[in-house]
């Protein structure tokens, strides 16, 4: 089979920040002497006290420690706002496009952003929030979410954004784990023509939290909400008297900027900690080069600020570069499947960054939703969150990009802070489905199961040799788990949890997770989280959850459920359990398939053999592999006979 290779467009290369030649030279320099390379590039941001050391990294298990620009001091918000005000105060920093297209869009300039963020910062101070305190942000995709995050950064508080689609329980867990003293929410969150009752969710969550936790409520819809006197504060009331002047706090490079919870292979979400200096340098540097961002362009990343993509590539990276970044409150299919493309035309978007799951959903609606739009402003397209299948890639390239926009398929993780493997538009020939080559300073390796580095064209486990400035530093409150999760299995490397193939051109093809994490519509979910939600239901005795291929979502959630003695299985009970999980975790975790399992395949030591359950869910039962270690091989026959594929 001949592989498709799309050469670099000469037009793009002409003005690109990095070309094929400069990529090779810069990459070689970046891995030969990382400290010298980042010493130069660290200066792209403003430091209050310049750093004298660049890289202080120890990857030796178990003493792993990662520090960058250690003795430098800075303020992240000042870098994202204040330093641009003199030169581009009247330039739009944030374009806000509301859920309802008939509501006016907003353009917030850098000067206005400075006032809004400073006022918000003073409100936080007034509520007793200070340097190092944790603040949980549970907001819709509105400019206030950006103000709140940047206000925390301005005063040195550590934000932890919780996706507005998460349930009260998920919110409570994150407030408690981070020991936050304040939660910021809004009355309601409009999305796709409906509204989530955010304040009411926060009320439910706070019943499970310490009494001292305060709630700051921003107005989005003005809809009806309950009020707890003494605990709840209305943002607009406090902002009225707050000053729009708030000097930025001087922070150490290694002071935490934020915590962001993400799913791991065990039940409890991990509070991934990112610090200030290295994270900002890396987010800004990748944003500039991966998207070839040019001054004055409108850049749109469709992610939610509740995910790391929203942190690094809606907010911190673009704003550190003085860009115009678009925040979209809605969904791709409301009011119809043309919405994304109408927003592109309306705001003349040059760079568009989205997830394969959205592309697949839109592709299924037909090309007419796209072709009625102009889209000639588009220059660069991006993809993130999961492997992009060649069909979706080609559609994106041909129908959206009219064959002239390079697609940057960016591989990275919450843990990595920024993009690690991706084409650069002016430098890298593209292969549909491949994230291609590493960014500066990133040394990917392919390992076998024993941790040996493999060379040439091979498949194996993806790991990264050495550190880069945007890397996470620890898991909040559990440094031992940080070390055991990422550095124990393959000593001397950062273990990413993904499998990959490297081809003869040194291109990386990510094949998906090698652990018990599944990727549903680009959202990471630990199968263990869904399992513990299921067994928390009184009628469920045991549950095992795996992913299976799903046309739109990439992976769907397939649950094998063993009921308590005497409980009758029924379709009504399946619906009840699916809704139960939805309420426990959030809509994104709602099971796609529930199969009753009189027994689960276990080893004699009692470990569930997920490999077999995965095969059944994938309808690949001709090839179940070795079942000789099963305690009761007969349970497998029952599961195969009753799988969703046999119905
Ligand atoms: C940024 C983000 C990380 C996991 C990662 C991998 C998958 C992300 C990908 C991709 C193939 C890409 N992933 N980008 N797989 N190609 N371009 O998504 O962070 O939510 O932490 O998920 O997503 O499996 O390990 P996060």
UniProtKB/TrEMBL annotation:
Cofactors, names only: Mg(2+)
GO CC list: cytosol
Residue positions binding CoA: 191-194, 309, 521, 582
CDD domains, A to Z: ACS
Task performed by this protein: Catalyzes the conversion of acetate into acetyl-CoA (AcCoA), an essential intermediate at the junction of anabolic and catabolic pathways. AcsA undergoes a two-step reaction. In the first half reaction, AcsA combines acetate with ATP to form acetyl-adenylate (AcAMP) intermediate. In the second half reaction, it can then transfer the acetyl group from AcAMP to the sulfhydryl group of CoA, forming the product AcCoA.
Protein's gene: acsA
Keyword Ligase part of the UniProt annotation: yes
Acetyl-coenzyme A synthetase N-terminal domain span: 23-80
NCBIfam families (UniProt xref): Ac_CoA_lig_AcsA, PRK00174.1
InterPro entries: Ac_CoA_lig, ACAS_N, AMP-bd_C, AMP-bd_C_sf, AMP-binding_CS, AMP-dep_synth/lig_dom, ANL_N_sf
Residues engaged in binding ATP: 385-387, 409-414, 498, 513, 524
Domain AMP-dependent synthetase/ligase stretches: 82-467
Residues binding Mg(2+): 535, 537, 540
Family according to the record: Belongs to the ATP-dependent AMP-binding enzyme family.
Lineage summary: Bacteria, Pseudomonadati, Pseudomonadota, Alphaproteobacteria, Rhodobacterales
Biological process per Gene Ontology, one example term: acetyl-CoA biosynthetic process from acetate
Positions of modified residues (N6-acetyllysine): 607
Catalytic activity entry: acetate + ATP + CoA = acetyl-CoA + AMP + diphosphate
Identification of the protein by name: Acetyl-coenzyme A synthetase
Annotated AMP-binding enzyme C-terminal domain residues: 529-607
PTMs per UniProt: Acetylated. Deacetylation by the SIR2-homolog deacetylase activates the enzyme.
PROSITE patterns from the UniProt entry: AMP_BINDING
Pfam families named among the record's database cross-references: ACAS_N, AMP-binding, AMP-binding_C
EC class: ligase
């Amino acid at each position: 089979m001949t592989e498709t290779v799309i050469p670099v467009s000469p037009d793009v290369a002409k003005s690109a920040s990095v070309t094929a030649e400069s990529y090779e030279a810069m990459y070689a320099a970046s891995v030969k002497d990382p400290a010298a390379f980042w010493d130069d590039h660290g200066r792209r941001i403003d430091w209050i006290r310049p750093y004298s050391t660049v890289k202080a990294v120890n990857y030796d298990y178990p003493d792993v420690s990662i520090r960058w620009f250690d003795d430098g001091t800075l303020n992240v918000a000042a870098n994202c706002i204040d330093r641009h005000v003199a030169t581009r105060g009247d330039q739009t920093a944030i374009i806000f496009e509301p859920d309802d297209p008939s509501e006016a869009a907003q353009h917030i300039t850098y000067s206005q952003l400075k006032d809004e963020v400073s006022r918000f910062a003073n409100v936080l101070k007034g509520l007793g929030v200070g340097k190092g305190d944790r603040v949980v942000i549970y907001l819709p995709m509105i400019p206030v979410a950006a103000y709140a995050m940047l206000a925390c950064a301005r005063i040195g508080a550590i934000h932890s954004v919780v996706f507005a689609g998460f349930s009260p329980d998920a919110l409570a867990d994150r407030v408690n784990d981070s020991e936050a003293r304040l939660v910021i929410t809004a009355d309601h969150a409009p999305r796709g023509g409906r509204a989530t009752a955010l304040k009411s969710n926060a009320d439910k969550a706070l019943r499970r939290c310490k009494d001292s936790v305060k709630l700051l409520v921003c107005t989005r819809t003005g809809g009806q909400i309950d009020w707890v006197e003494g605990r709840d504060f209305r943002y607009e009331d406090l902002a009225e008297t707050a000053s729009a002047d708030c000097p930025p706090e001087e922070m150490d490079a290694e002071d935490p900027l934020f915590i962001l919870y993400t799913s791991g292979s065990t039940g409890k979400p991990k509070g991934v900690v990112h610090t200030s200096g290295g994270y900002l340098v890396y987010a800004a540097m990748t944003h500039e080069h991966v998207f070839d961002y040019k001054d004055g362009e409108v850049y749109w990343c469709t992610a939610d600020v509740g995910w790391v993509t929203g942190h690094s590539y809606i907010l911190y990276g673009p704003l550190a570069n003085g860009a115009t970044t678009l925040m979209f409150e809605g969904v791709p299919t409301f009011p119809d499947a043309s919405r994304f493309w109408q927003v592109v035309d309306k705001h003349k978007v040059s760079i568009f960054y989205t997830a394969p799951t959205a592309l697949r959903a839109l592709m299924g609606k037909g090309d007419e939703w796209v072709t009625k739009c102009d889209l000639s402003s588009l220059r660069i397209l991006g993809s993130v969150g999961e492997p992009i299948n060649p069909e979706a890639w080609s559609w994106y390239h041909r129908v959206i990009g009219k064959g002239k926009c390079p697609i940057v398929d960016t591989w990275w993780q919450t843990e990595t802070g920024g993009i690690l493997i991706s084409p650069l538009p002016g430098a890298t020939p593209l292969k549909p489905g491949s994230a291609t080559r590493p960014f500066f300073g990133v040394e990917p390796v392919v390992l076998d199961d024993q941790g040996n580095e493999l060379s040439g064209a091979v498949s194996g486990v993806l790991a990264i040799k050495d550190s880069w400035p945007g890397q996470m530093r620890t898991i909040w409150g559990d440094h031992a788990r940080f070390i055991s999760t990422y550095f124990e299995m393959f000593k001397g490397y950062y273990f990413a949890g993904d499998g990959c193939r490297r081809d003869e051109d040194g291109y990386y093809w990510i094949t998906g997770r090698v652990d018990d994490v599944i990727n549903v519509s680009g959202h990471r979910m630990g199968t263990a989280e869904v399992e513990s939600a299921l067994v928390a239901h009184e009628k469920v005795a045991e549950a095992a959850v795996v992913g299976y291929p799903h046309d739109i979502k990439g992976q769907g959630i397939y649950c094998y459920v063993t009921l308590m003695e005497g409980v009758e299985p029924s379709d009504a009970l399946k619906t009840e359990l699916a809704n139960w999980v939805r309420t426990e975790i959030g809509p994104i975790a709602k099971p796609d398939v529930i199969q009753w399992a009189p027994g689960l395949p276990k080893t004699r030591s009692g470990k569930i053999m997920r490999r077999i359950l995965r095969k059944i869910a994938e309808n690949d039962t001709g090839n179940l592999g070795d079942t000789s270690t099963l305690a009761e091989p007969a349970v497998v026959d029952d599961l195969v006979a009753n799988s969703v594929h046999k119905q």
